[in-house]
Amino acid sequence: MVREVKDLQFPPRWSDYLNHGYGYPLFTFTYPLPYYAGTFLKLINIGLVESVKILFVLSVFISAFFMYKLGSILRDKTSGLFAALYYLSANYRLVNLYIRGSLGESLAFIFFPLIFYMAIIYINNPSVWNYLLLSLSLAGLILSHNVMAILFIPFFMLFYFLYVLHQKRKLNLSAWIKMILPLLQGFGLAAYFFIPALLEKKYIYLSQIPLSAIADNFIKLKDLVYTPWNYGIKPPISLGIGHSLALLFILICYLIFNNKKYKKDFLFNFLIVSLLLLLYLTNINSSLFWKYPPLVWLDFPWRMMGIIIFIISLLMIYLPKRPILKSIFTFLTIVVLITNLNFVKPSTYINKPDSYYETNDATTTSMDELMPIWVKQKAKNRYISKIEFDDKISAVTNLTYNSKNIEFNATALSPVMIKINSLFFPGWKFQINGINTSISIQEPDGVMSLELNQGSHQIRGRFEETPLRLIADWVSILSAVFLVIVVRFNKSFFNRHEN
Fold it and tell me: Of 53, 279, 376, 478, which one is least surrounded by beta carbons within 10 A?
């Protein structure tokens, strides 16, 4: 990302250095927000390793803070504190931090409580600033982690509209527009990323091969509560004994001592139904539903645990009010925290300088799944020269290239094909002596080649936005402009009284 930004490639999409220098459409499909943040830190002279660590640490504390704020606004500060503690210490959170190392997913945990928090505030007080923050929060989640957004947004949308109906009862057209606009605004701001990521997926191997066998990644019922901690290939995905007991304690106390109230408690009932549905989707008995979009895109059913942990942590706001029961719950929480502290450690420590990571020649993805489908034979080594030519070319001079430009001069003694050691991907365009020319894709490596006539030629290549990406870019630009207009000029719309 740092390389692409320094090349003035906006928005960053094509990584020229990766895949042994043949290029890789990494940020066309990989969530970019964590790497925007990391790039900012790098550009202010914070090291690569330190930048990643800072982002992980921020994901922990900021997510806990917003869960605390959400619990506080729904009930009280004590409830918010318990919700934050359980959100912070969940096994799945620790797996992401210390085993999987999933930066995007860890940052996505910030947005789960933040989006709920801002939605509740906006519904009850649809001011211009609440509109702004709710829109940015939704866009932030989409840009933080594709899969978590696909899982969380339908769950949130259902809550949002049910909560609107529950709170407002009857709304006029103006009020409904006011409720829907921040959602559309959020999608619009992130459109430049998710529209090409969805519609150009057909060009990459991810559209043809799954990252894993879905059937192998369901959570068995016996493993749901407890799975031994390990640092193996398959992470230990479970609720954890402590969280399971805390949830059971909360439910029993709430149902017994609030047996009349819970039947009318919208949030409690919504969370319980959602929890049961998501738990079902982690079990192999739900395999029929995983054959169809959007679930078939997700590969790992256990990723549902991200939303499940959010729901369980939020249910902690229903801690019992009776002193003796609250004391028992507090003791249980302390036991949970102490027990889970055993997992707050990596398996080993690696101390490598930034230069070690800067020379990575791989694709950075687990199975090279973003490789274009016309690449039948992957590169194993870096090329000797960016431009390859035979004895029909007398010279190649003035060669310069980066992640969005390739320029050179060539003199051909007779008509010849010249090979450019960069993978073709939609967006690459070339001109020979200022005239657009067609690009051939060489087999089996999928690199580009151009046909040159006899004579001297100036060749210029540029990685540009396709029409689809350009439309998506303009959707995001116009959404940003609309947001500025709303914040700056349209405050009266948010001050109107609704019945």
Answer: 376
- Which spans in 75-127 are helix H? 77-89, 91-95, 103-124
Given a cut of 50, the residues of the chain with pLDDT beneath it are: 497, 499
* Residue type, position 36, single letter: Y
CA 381 centroid distance within chain: 30
Determine the distance from the C-alpha atom of residue 449 to the mean position of all C-alpha atoms in its chain, rounded to a whole number.
35
- Domains held by the chain: number: 1
**What's the burial of 353, exposed, middle or buried (CB within 10 Å: 0-12/13-18/19+)?**
exposed
Q: What are phi and psi of 417, to 5 degrees?
A: -95, 130
| Cα end-to-end distance, the chain, whole Å | 49
What the block records as the tokens of 117 is 């928090």
Count of residues making up the chain: 499
Q: What is the pLDDT of residue 189?
A: 97
Segment (H or E) for 139 = helix 128-144
Residue 155 domain-assigned (yes or no): yes
Say if 151 falls within a structural domain: yes
Residue range(s) defining the domain that contains residue 160: 31-343
Separation CA 115–CA 156 (nearest Å):
8
Cα–Cα distance, 362 to 364 (Å, whole number): 6
Dihedrals phi, psi of 451, to nearest 5 degrees = -95, 125
Q: Following CA atoms 409, 404, 426, 476 in sequence, which dihedral angle do they give, to the nearest 10 degrees?
A: -150
Based on C-alpha coordinates, what's the Rg of the chain? 26
Alpha-carbon gap, residue 156 to 158, rounded angstroms:
5
> Does 367 fall in a domain?
no
DSSP state of 219: P
Q: What is the enclosing helix (H) or strand (E) of 33? A: helix 33-43
**pLDDT for res 33:** 96
pLDDT at 499: 43
Give the 3-state secondary structure of residue 380: coil
Report CA-CA distances (Å) from 243 to 105, 225, 257, 329.
Answer: 20, 8, 21, 11
Answer yes or no: is 439 within a domain. no
Element (H, E) at 332: helix 323-340
Comparing C-alpha atoms, which of 414, 407, 409, 406 is closest to residue 390? 414
Burial of 381 (0-12, 13-18, 19+ CB in 10 A): exposed
Edge-to-edge strands of the sheet including 416-423? 387-388, 416-423, 447-452, 440-441
